[in-house]
Write a structure and sequence with these properties.
This protein has 9 helices and 11 strands. With about 220 residues, the protein is an alpha/beta fold. The protein has a 6-stranded parallel beta sheet, sandwiched between helices. A 5-stranded antiparallel beta sheet has the order 7-8-11-9-10. This is TrkA family potassium uptake protein.
């Protein structure tokens, strides 16, 4: 379990708070808007109303005691930048800041952020890949050129084993798992036989997976 300071309770901040709680981390959430704080009380361990651009307020939070500080402010870049800088000045171990554009990320990284996240860009990229193909159900980009895809098993593969199909040799992709409803079969061997209605998780270069998906 980690201790997390989460500043900003807009949509991104609330979603992150909910996921952190699900992962059993201890979260102190902060926002200057009282209504947002009240709405998040059931999502976090503690919540506080305060202005994160105030040096005195940031100092009062004891930021050195948190494993992770997240600046989730999305509607006011100046406040996000000031908050990021103040957190680092007060000795924050790791600061993750939300960015909307590359220029924002550049300034945030120069002023104390250890890393940045682009929620809108990442969601847009995921949606573009997910909904531009009839066979993709999920997608995780690992590098600019490689990703993991959850995709349908081609009808021609049903009743055949991975070894018979020569998947890696013919398509240059690796099958990480097969899925039957909620059941996950990790790292299936060469004798694994595909069944109708299954999906699979494949890892490969984007160009190879996209070529394979035209079945």
């Amino acid at each position: 379990m980690k201790s997390v300071l989460l500043i900003g309770l807009g949509r991104f901040g609330r979603h992150m708070a909910a996921k952190l709680q699900e992962l059993h981390h201890e979260v102190l959430a902060v926002d200057k808007n009282e209504e947002r704080v009240n709405e998040a009380l059931d999502l976090v361990t503690h919540a506080q109303i305060g202005d994160s651009t105030s040096e005195a307020f940031i100092a009062s939070l004891g930021v050195r005691n948190f494993d992770l500080c997240v600046v989730a402010i999305g509607d006011d870049f100046q406040s996000s930048l000031e908050t990021t800088a103040l957190l680092k000045e007060q000795g924050a171990r790791f600061v993750l800041s939300r960015a909307a554009r590359d220029v924002h990320a550049k300034f945030l990284l120069r002023n104390g952020a250890d890393d940045v996240v682009y929620p809108e860009r990442e969601t847009a990229s995921w949606a573009a890949v997910r909904y531009s193909s009839d066979h993709i159900f999920d997608y995780i980009q690992l590098t600019p050129d490689h990703a993991i895809y959850e995709t349908a098993v081609p009808p021609a593969w049903v009743g055949k084993t991975i070894g018979q199909l020569g998947v890696r040799q013919r398509h240059n992709i690796n099958i990480l798992a097969a899925k039957r409803g909620e059941e996950l079969i990790p790292i299936p061997g060469g004798d694994y036989c595909f069944r109708e209605g299954e999906t699979m998780l494949v890892l490969g270069a984007d160009r190879d997976v996209q070529k394979f998906l035209h079945f």
